[in-house]
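Here is one chain, start to finish.
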Amino acid sequence: MRGLGEEVRVDGAVGDAEALARLVRAAQRGDALAMDELLGVLTPYVRRICGPVARQDSADAAQDTLVAVLRNLRRLREPAALLGWVRVIAVREAVRHAERRPVTVELAERPAPGDPELAADIDAVLRGLPPDQRAVLTLRHVEGLSEQEAAAVLAVPVGTVRSRLFRARRAFRRARE
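Its structure:
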């Protein structure tokens, strides 16, 4: 992505934080091109967060996240906090969408390691987890946050994050037995 003349990439490699901050400030001032460019930068990041949590409703959760970001962008005081702020909104929207559609899943017999069906079984276990557990797993294992950071994003105590991780991991172990 070109951020007002400088390279900025959010999803993947770390980009120029100052260029991203300038892009945010321009969007906050109402620059339509900057808003469009900011959406282009944030969309893959938001989808990566919403996908594992909201599952089949991830597109709606991502869209609602981006709408909330655009509506409230002027309230963001520190442009450097953009990604953390967007992450909080994305997790909230993904959990909200996931809670609307509970899913129950039964697994077939246990696949062998390296079996192509293993990925499908992992996906099935994820679908069967409650949204709050999927959110914690996504923050810890996809976003790479610590338990403390995940607790801050979810606005819950660290002990709650640990118990959700424990229950989610136990569900995986049971599915593999």
